[in-house]
Amino acid sequence: MSTTKVLSGMMDLMKGMQERMETLEKKFDESSKKEEDEKPKNEPTPEEIKIYKQSIQ
User: Fold this and answer.
1) Residue 46: pLDDT band by 50, 70, 90 thresholds?
2) 3-state class of 3 per DSSP?
3) What is the CA radius of gyration of the chain?
4) Residue 22: which domain range?
5) How many structural domains is the chain composed of?
6) Of 8, 18, 20, 41, which is least surrounded by CB within 10 A?
7) Whole-structure pTM over 0.85, yes or no?
8) What region does 47 belong to: left with phi over 0, alpha with psi -120 to 50, or beta?
9) Where is the composition biased (Basic and acidic residues) (predicted)?
């Protein structure tokens, strides 16, 4: 094999790996955004407020 064929093959491989990394990063970003949306807010529910007020008295 000539050096140019080896180098062009390596360049193709690197391009493929870079594309794969970019798609994985996009998937990771999307999934982390979904998880943030699904997390419950740290505000107490009306029921929890009622129980808290009863426990104070």
Assistant:
1) confident
2) helix
3) 26
4) 3-56
5) 1
6) 41
7) no
8) alpha
9) 19-51
